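does this look right to u?? iron/sulfur cluster version
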Amino acid sequence: MLECELLSQCGFFRKHEATLDLPCRGFVQAYCRGPRREACQRRAYLLLHGFSPPDDLLPNGQVVPMSYQAATE
Ligand code: SF4
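got this back:
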């Protein structure tokens, strides 16, 4: 299985890996455990800045909607 090497230090993955929410589950399957990990904007951010972006930055570069953030806290 293809897996991102940053799984253990990624806030998005730790927060959403076990989610039942279909869109977030899709991101995990496509990026974190799938072929799109090289295109992940979180990964690019970490490599550029040397530290992780906020947990709610999605792999596609968008931010988790506030309504969903409130529901998962
Ligand atoms: S969100 Fe990106 S950086 Fe984080 S584990 Fe998934 S592919 Fe890796």
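The chain has one domain: 7-72. idk if thats expected tbh
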